[in-house]
Every structure is written in structure tokens, then in C-alpha cells.
From TrEMBL:
Residue numbers spanned by region Disordered: 1-45, 71-143
MHD2 domain residues: 815-925
Compositionally biased spans, kind Low complexity: 19-31, 86-95
Compositional bias annotation for Polar residues: 96-105
Highest classification ranks of the organism: Eukaryota, Viridiplantae, Streptophyta, Embryophyta, Tracheophyta
Species, as recorded: Anisodus acutangulus
Biased composition regions of type Basic and acidic residues, renumbered to the chain: 1-18
Domain of life: Eukaryota
Domain MHD1: 544-687
Entry protein name: Protein unc-13 homolog
Length: 984
């Protein structure tokens, strides 16, 4: 017996007091439910039950094995070879040895899905030595020691109990513990002298007497006859002892009287025969309350919501009390389900593992309930499940108030417990089950349907209360209708929350949970909306807002119902029939289209008026950007803002109409702005006939008599009195470029506005159709290209014509070189660079360069009879062209060399012809002509037409070089072949 709960005696230290204090305060923080097992008696406290339960546990374990209940926590290293104490000389059995190595991986916890305690074996660590012990492992502690700590029994009490059990065992050799009335035997073993003070002894005696009263008189295993003399005698003894303690001891007379009365009651049966067991603690509900107390010891005293890691070993020993308490596996399952469930509630409903474990145990209870018709079992089952169902339904009948993101994980298990309890109940306080039980599917379906409708009606009522309060507060205002829009929005959010959070959970028991939910909300909201819809006389902004909200809500609810009912027999038609359409979207769409048309018409009229008065001179427009362009962009921006502020449910659908109208207005602005500005062809002269033909031809037409050749070219270019001068063209180019940039910004802003619109969906962003300006960007690019080329060719062929055409290579090339032209061109480039937007600056300068290269070639190949070139002049021409390129290169600060090379390709290809000798040129001309015209050219070389596409292999280009060659051989060839004049 001394080895039963053996432990290292050094473990007896004062910390047990702190342990008791800590756990007591911890227990006080719990808020458990009322036990489903009836009250025993007001005189029995929780502490009384706990001490008696511990005594039963120790007694039951003592008689079940003669070996020590020893285990080694997984985080402690076993002692190398501890010397066996006299009280614990036998080694653990094989089964016990296996349990020693599996403590940290409890099979029970794994089966129930319970997490491991963060303070694994912490109870034992606390029992193994004081903080000053240096943390060295002591001798192995026992399951009994663990149970002592768990049940908050101090070591003095534990030692007294074990000492008493040794004495009882010595006096009753061979008797089973079930045949012993433990409180009676304990009373006989001790006197007041065995306690530290009289108060402790009195409390101990009263507890044992009250336990005898509870087990034999108040809750007997076999019902008592009121005339039972043993019962009357025992009641008198207990009542007297509670007022004045009786003398206890082995041979005391009062104890003999007490023993006679107790044993007469404990051993009786309904038929008068004697039991082998003493029925003093196996009557309902006393035995269940005692067993509940034992099961509570499975929870870590440091972590109230965590079951200890050693629960497997502890539970095996707790079950040894079944013989004393007359319990079995079925009653254990009920009691353990309740303990797990109650601990979840008592610890703040945070540890979902406990809830899951309780649900798992209920599955076992359901199996048990199908296999027994025991009325006592049915009564316990009914009271336990009723308590659990009552708690669950308080939360499920208004689950929107109960669950949120922080505790939603517990909802599936709470629903499962509620449904499981409902299925297994014989009766329910709500009379729901006081009739023939339906099938399990019907019960689950019915309960979930009730939960959904009840919770949503409650939630809607709360929204209505909020709306009614707002309506009362706004009665003095002209129109309180937006309250309905707010209500619709709130209902839509409630439906979304239901679909996303609750319906996936409830769908496990009700296949159309979301459909039932939205149907309930539709009915609730429809009743409020019906009066409003019938009273609409005009589509005011408030009315639009309400109808938009109602339309959106309708679509959302219908969509949810359809998606949820797709697998139903009728495809959800029954639910949809409860949702008559509002037909608000069509009316709103027509009104918005009229609004768009009015805005677009006004904008186009404004563009016409503004462009008629626009001044394109950069000196009159800050930043080179005209006021009309700033204003048109501002109007468009305001129009977009106004559109997205409309309280309509179809922004994505109607946005293309608005964008198309704005796009047309902007394209109209671009078209009007570039109208009359000309193009490249406006300034490129008609190609003159071959030189030597006439001396009256200048650039293919008569000389412009309005052009003063002595006028400063810069002044003529920059200060013209027309609105189509080069700088005016630059302002227009700036405008088009600004449009391109601002349109990109507007398009991004439109996407942002669309994303912020409640009516937008993911598919609305899958393509750019209807959200971009389709024609204006292309019109701007085309306009920039047109006006940039027009500006370049105007400068070269119009504004700088006096220094290019009338000055370059006139007479002797060596005395009329390109320098004057370069000076004037550089002045123009400087002013243009300071005027034009930097993002198109390279483009316009490149176009000017291209025009200058074309003008340079035109001087060389069609410059009229005042120009001739010798073979030696080719170097001058090449040097001048290099100077022209260098102007645009600007020592690396100008155009990129690859751009210059691209534009100068034709000139570079043609210039070598001026270096070639006449015979080579003639031969190349013949060969090129024959290749072009074939055999028909063998007898007589045809006169090639002027194409204007200069090329060193093209006949007309070669012929023109020959025409300008100041060489006798060239003149003879031309005279002989085409009868051209010999003199230029």
C-alpha cells in the first residue's frame, strides 16, 4: 500500500500552498453553465465533492493494482539507476512502461483533436522541487501525485487519506473497495488529534456525514421507504452530529451505531437481498456529480482550457471509479461531453478544440442512445442535451449578433452540437420534440431553417430600428427618402455577409441555406419598399438613389438565390417567385442617357464658340497652351465627376455612351484646330521641269511677288500676322500633345472612378472598351504629324526661301555657300525649341531637318539655270551638307545621330554623283534607263519622268545631275540625246 502513490519525499515543500492559491483564483475566474445534473444538497460544496471524489479515486486505484502509478514526463531524463525505495521496489508493468513513453502524444487528445498544452508536464515540474533546486530532475513522480495537484488536494490531506486507506486495507483483507462505505471507514480511522486543529477536524467530519446523507438518504441507488428505520436513525445521527461532532474511532459506541445504520442502507436491495457492493455513492445524480469532478481534473490547472498531456493515463485510472459510482461507458460519454462543453463555455469560449471534442463525444452519445432504452439513462441524456441545446440555440437564433470574424470558427461546431442535441432529445422545453420524432434529415433541416429565418429577421429588425430612428430625425426635412437607400445598402451587406460567412457553414445541414436567407431578407425589405415604389412621381436625385439601391439589392439577392438553388428540383423558381422585379434600371438608364446627350451637345457648342475666338500666338498663351484647351479638359473632367456621382446602378453599362460623346467632342476640337493649317504638300513646290528648259521657272511656279527677299527671315517667320505661322502651328502641336498626356491621365482616373463605383464588377476591367478615348488620341497623333511636317516645310520652303533658294549656290558655288541659311535656320530652331513641348520637340526638329535635307537636294537637282556644278564643286557641296547635319547634331546636344543618319540617307546616296566624272554618269544613266525601260530604250533613250524620289540609280536623278554639270561632254550628250540647250 505504501507504494501506491509513492513519490520522492523531497517533493513536500511549501509551494503546494501557492499552487492551491493559484488554481483557486483561476477557478474563480471560470463562468460555467448550470450543471444538467440536479442539485444534490445546499450543504455539499464544490470543495466537499472534490475531496470525496479524490478519496474515491485513491481508493479505487489502490485496489486495482498493487504497483506504483509511476510515469516520467517526456521532458525529463530518467535517473540513471535510481535506488528503489522500499515502498516502490517493483518495476512498472509492460503496459505501464508503454504509457511512460507516450505521455507527450496523448492518443485521446489526438482522437478528439485537442491541441498540446504549452505547459506540458508543468504540473509535475511544479511538484518536483522548489525553484531553488537548480532544475535537476528528481525521482519519477506518479499519476497519483499528478491527480493530487490537479484536484487541489494538499499533501497533508493526501497523506492522511493514504494512511487511512492502509489501515482500512489491513482490517479488511480480501474485500473489494466496492463493498466498503468509504466515508464511514474514514470516520472510523481518525480522531480530532489527527488534524492540525479542531476546526479542520469538524469540517472533515461534517463533510463525510453530509456525503453519507447525500448518498444514502437524498439520492439513494434504490428508492427509500419513508418507514425505513435505518434511514430514520441515520438522519437523526447526522442531524445531531452536524450540531455537535460525534466521537469517532474504531471501537467507539457512537461509531457502531452509525455503522449499523449506514450498512443497513448501503447493502439493501429492492427485493431484500444483500448486494456485494455498498451503494453509498452510486445513486443519480450524486455519482455523476462526483464523476464530473474527477473529469474536471483532466484540465491543466495552469491552462484552464487545456487538457493535460497525461490524460490517457489519468483517464484510465479515473475509469476505475466506475465500480464505486456504478457508471459505464455510455454514462461516461454523456458526462465527458458535458465537461468538455462546459469548460469551453466557462473559459470564455475561445478554445474551439474543446468544442470540437465535445461535438465528437456527442457522436458517441448518439450511438449509445440508439442502443439502450434505460429510462435513467434517457433522463440524464435529456437533461444534458437540453442544457447544451438551450445554450446553442440562444446563439444560433440570432447568430448575426453572436458570431463575427473573431469567433466564426466556432460556429460550425456549435451548429453541429445544436443539431446533434436536437436529433437525440426525447423532449425539449420548447415542445418542438413533444411529438413523434421525424427523420434526422428533417430535424436538421428544420432547425437550420428556423435559425436562418429567426436570425435574419432579428438582424433586419435592428436595421429597421436604425432606419426608423433616422426617418424620425429627418421628418422636418423636405425628403427623407434616402433612408430607404441606406436600408437597402445595409440589407445588401447583410446578405453578402450571410452568403460569404454563414451560408457555407449552414449549407452542411441545409442545402439551400443562402436561398432561404435572401428570400427572408427580400420579404422583409419588400414590405418596406412597396409603399415607396407606388408613390414615385418623378425621378429626383433622391428617388434615383433609392431606386439604384433597390435595384442593386434585387440583383444581389436574386443572384445569391439562383446560385444557391441551382441544384434544387425547380432550379430556385420557388424562391425567385417571392421576388417580384422592381423594374427601376430601365427608367434610370433612359434618364442618364438624356443627361449625357445634353452635356455633350453643350460641350460641342462651346468648342465651336471658343475656337472661333482662340488666339494661337504663344505670347498670348501662358505655357504655350491655349485657354480653350485648358477649359475643354476641365469641362470633360467635371463631366466625368458628375457622371460617377450619379446614384445609378449601371455606371459600367452607360460609361461607353459618355466616353463616345466626349471622344467625339475632343476629336472635333482637334479637327477644327488643325483645319486650314496646311500640310507638307502645302509647302513642297511643284517639281520644276528639267533645267536648261526655261529661265522663268522658280520652284515650279512664278515667284511670289509678296515675298520681300531682303526681309529678315526670322522676322518674317515669327511675327507674321496670320494665325497659321510656325509658332502658331507649334501652339497647336503643344495642344495636341497636351491632349494625349491628359487623356492618359483621364483614362486612369476613369478606371479609378469605376473601381470606386459600387456597380462595377471584375469583368468591367477585363478590357478597355468604353473606358478609353478611341478616336481622339489617333487624331492628336495625326494632327501632330501633319502640323509638325507643315511647320518644317513652311520654315524651309517658305520662311527661309530667300536664303535657301535665292542664295545657296547662285553663280559660283564657292561664293554662295550654305552659311547664311544655317544662321537663319539656327535662329528658327532656337525659337521653336523654346516654344514647343519637350515631348514633341525632337519630332518637329527632325521634320525641320528632313525638310532642310529635301530643300538642299532640290537646290542641287532642281535649282534652276542660275546654278551649275563642276566635278570639283562636289567637295563644297559635301562640306556644306556636313555643316547642315552638324547644326542638328549640335555637338551631341541636338538630335541623335541615328535619327540624322536616317533622314540624310537619300542626300548621302545622291551626293557621290556630283563627284563622279561625266562618262561614268552617262554610262550609269544609260544602264539605269535600259533597266527601267527594257529593249525599247536601245534605239533611243526615253526622257525619264520626274518622280521626285531621288535615288542614285534612278534615271531622272542621274539626268538632273548631268543637266547641272558644267561640262562640255555633259552638254553634248544632252544635246544629242534630248536636244537640250548646250548652255545653261
Amino acid at each position: 500500500m505504501s507504494s501506491l502513490f509513492s513519490r520522492d519525499r523531497t517533493l513536500s515543500y511549501s509551494r503546494r500552498d501557492s499552487t492551491t492559491t493559484t488554481t483557486s483564483s483561476s477557478t474563480a475566474a471560470l463562468s460555467p453553465l448550470q450543471s444538467p445534473f440536479p442539485d444534490l444538497t445546499p450543504s455539499l460544496s464544490t470543495s466537499d465533492l472534490r475531496e470525496t471524489a479524490y478519496e474515491i479515486f485513491v481508493a479505487a486505484c489502490r485496489t486495482s493494482t498493487g504497483k506504483a502509478l509511476t510515469y516520467i514526463p517526456s521532458d525529463l531524463s530518467p535517473s540513471p539507476s535510481p535506488s528503489p525505495s522500499p515502498s516502490n521496489s517493483s518495476s512498472p508493468s509492460p503496459s505501464m512502461q508503454r504509457s511512460l513513453t507516450s505521455t507527450a502524444a496523448s492518443k485521446m487528445k489526438k482522437a478528439l483533436g485537442l491541441r498540446s498544452s504549452s505547459s506540458s508536464s508543468g504540473l509535475i515540474k511544479r511538484a518536483e522541487g522548489s525553484p531553488g533546486s537548480g532544475g535537476k530532475p528528481k525521482k519519477p513522480v506518479t499519476i497519483g501525485e499528478l491527480m493530487r495537484v490537479q484536484m487541489k488536494v494538499n499533501e497533508n490531506v493526501d497523506s492522511r487519506i493514504r494512511r487511512a486507506l492502509l489501515r482500512i486495507a489491513a482490517g479488511q483483507v480480501g474485500r473489494r473497495i466496492e463493498s466498503t462505505v468509504l466515508p464511514l471507514e474514514l470516520l472510523q480511522q481518525f480522531k480530532a488529534a489527527d488534524f492540525t486543529d479542531q476546526r479542520e477536524y469538524d469540517a472533515w467530519q461534517k463533510r463525510n456525514l453530509k456525503m453519507l446523507e447525500a448518498g444514502l438518504l437524498l439520492h439513494p441507488h434504490t428508492p427509500l421507504d419513508e418507514s425505513n428505520t435505518a434511514a430514520q436513525r441515520l438522519r437523526q445521527i447526522i442531524q445531531a452530529a452536524l450540531d455537535r461532532p460525534i466521537e469517532t474511532g474504531r471501537n467507539n459506541e457512537s461509531m457502531q451505531v452509525l455503522r449499523t445504520a449506514v450498512m443497513g442502507l448501503a447493502n439493501r436491495s429492492s427485493d431484500g437481498s444483500l448486494f456485494e457492493s455498498c451503494h453509498w455513492a452510486d445513486g443519480l445524480p450524486l455519482n455523476l456529480r462526483l464523476y464530473e469532478t474527477l473529469l474536471e481534473a483532466c484540465f491543466d490547472v495552469n491552462e484552464e482550457a487545456s487538457i493535460i498531456e497525461e490524460v490517457d493515463e489519468l483517464m484510465d485510472l479515473i475509469k476505475k471509479t466506475w465500480g464505486i459510482l456504478a457508471l459505464n461507458q455510455m454514462l461516461h460519454n454523456i458526462c465527458f461531453s458535458w465537461v468538455l462543453f462546459n469548460r469551453y463555455v466557462a473559459t470564455g469560449q475561445f478554445e474551439n478544440d474543446l468544442l470540437d471534442a465535445a461535438d465528437s463525444q456527442l457522436a458517441e452519445v448518439a450511438k449509445d442512445a440508439k442502443t439502450t432504452k434505460d429510462p435513467a439513462y434517457a433522463k440524464i441524456l435529456n437533461s444534458t442535451l437540453t442544457a447544451m441545446l438551450g445554450w446553442a440555440e440562444k446563439r444560433l437564433l440570432a447568430y448575426h449578433d453572436t458570431f463575427d470574424a473573431g469567433n466564426i470558427e466556432s460556429m460550425p461546431t456549435i451548429v453541429s452540437i445544436g443539431v446533434s442535441a436536437a436529433k437525440n432529445l426525447v423532449e425539449d422545453i420548447s415542445n418542438e420534440y413533444r411529438r413523434r420524432r421525424k427523420s434526422e434529415v428533417d430535424v436538421a433541416h428544420s432547425r437550420i431553417d428556423t435559425y436562418i429565418r429567426s436570425s435574419l429577421r432579428t438582424a433586419f429588425a435592428q436595421l429597421m430600428e436604425k432606419a426608423d430612428s433616422s426617418r424620425r430625425a429627418s421628418r422636418s426635412q423636405p425628403n427623407p427618402l434616402p433612408v430607404l437607400a441606406i436600408l437597402a445598402k445595409d440589407v445588401g451587406e447583410l446578405a453578402s455577409k450571410e452568403r460569404e460567412i454563414f451560408s457555407p457553414i449552414l449549407k452542411r445541414w441545409h442545402p439551400f441555406a443562402a436561398g432561404v436567407a435572401v428570400a427572408t431578407l427580400h420579404i422583409c425589405y419588400g414590405n418596406e419598399l412597396k409603399q415607396f415604389v407606388s408613390s414615385i412621381t418623378e425621378l429626383t436625385p433622391d428617388a434615383v438613389q433609392v431606386l439604384r439601391a433597390a435595384d442593386k439589392l434585387e440583383k444581389d439577392l436574386v443572384q445569391i438565390a439562383v446560385e444557391d438553388s441551382v441544384d434544387s428540383d425547380d432550379g430556385g423558381k420557388a424562391i425567385i417567385r417571392e421576388m417580384p422585379p422592381f423594374e427601376a434600371e430601365g427608367a434610370i438608364a433612359n434618364m442618364v442617357k438624356d443627361w449625357i446627350k445634353t452635356r455633350i451637345d453643350r460641350l460641342k457648342e462651346w468648342v465651336d464658340r471658343s475656337l472661333q475666338q482662340e488666339v494661337w500666338n504663344p505670347q498670348a498663351n501662358e505655357g504655350g497652351f491655349p485657354p480653350s484647351a485648358v477649359e475643354v479638359l476641365r469641362i470633360i473632367d467635371e463631366t466625368l465627376d458628375a457622371f460617377f456621382q450619379l446614384p445609378i446602378p449601371m455606371h459600367p453599362a452607360l460609361l461607353p455612351d459618355l466616353m463616345s460623346g466626349l471622344d467625339r467632342c475632343l476629336q472635333y476640337y482637334v479637327s477644327k484646330a488643325k483645319s486650314g493649317c496646311g500640310s507638307r504638300n502645302t509647302y513642297v513646290p511643284i517639281m520644276p521641269a528639267l533645267t536648261r528648259c526655261t529661265t522663268a521657272t522658280r520652284w515650279g511656279k512664278k515667284k511670289d511677288k509678296t515675298l520681300n527677299t531682303k526681309r529678315n527671315a526670322q522676322v518674317a517667320t515669327m511675327n507674321g500676322d496670320t494665325s497659321f505661322g510656325v509658332l502658331q502651328l507649334c501652339v497647336r502641336i503643344n495642344t495636341f500633345q497636351r491632349f494625349r498626356t491628359e487623356l492618359e491621365v483621364l483614362e486612369k482616373r476613369i478606371i479609378t472612378l469605376l473601381r470606386n463605383s459600387e456597380s462595377a464588377h471584375v469583368e468591367d476591367f477585363s478590357n478597355g472598351l468604353g473606358k478609353k478615348f478611341e478616336i481622339t488620341p489617333a487624331a492628336c497623333v495625326e494632327g501632330i504629324q501633319q502640323l509638325s511636317e507643315a511647320a518644317g516645310y513652311r520654315i524651309i520652303f517658305h520662311d527661309l526661301s530667300p536664303v535657301l533658294w535665292d542664295g545657296l549656290y547662285i553663280g559660283e558655288p564657292s561664293s554662295s555657300r550654305i552659311e547664311p541659311f544655317l544662321q537663319e535656320l539656327e535662329k528658327n530652331l532656337t525659337i521653336i525649341s523654346n516654344t514647343v513641348n519637350e515631348r514633341v520637340r525632337t519630332r518637329i526638329i527632325a521634320d525641320i531637318m528632313g525638310a532642310s535635307f529635301d530643300g538642299f537636294l532640290l537646290v542641287l537637282l532642281a535649282g534652276g539655270p542660275s546654278r551649275t556644278f563642276t566635278q570639283q564643286d562636289s567637295q563644297i557641296v559635301e562640306d556644306d551638307f556636313k555643316s547642315l547635319k552638324d547644326l542638328f547634331w549640335a555637338n551631341g546636344n541636338g538630335l541623335p545621330m541615328d535619327v540624322i543618319n536616317k533622314y540624310s540617307t537619300t542626300v548621302r546616296d545622291v551626293l557621290p554623283l556630283f563627284r563622279a566624272d561625266v562618262d561614268s554618269l552617262i554610262e550609269r544613266f544609260r544602264r539605269s534607263t535600259l533597266e527601267t525601260y527594257g529593249s525599247s530604250a536601245k534605239s533611243r533613250l526615253p526622257l525619264p519622268p520626274t518622280s521626285g524620289q531621288w535615288n542614285p540609280t534612278e534615271p531622272n536623278t542621274l539626268l538632273r545631275v548631268l543637266c547641272y554639270r558644267n561640262d562640255e561632254a555633259a552638254s553634248k550628250f544632252l544635246k544629242k540625246t534630248y536636244n537640250f540647250p548646250k548652255k545653261l
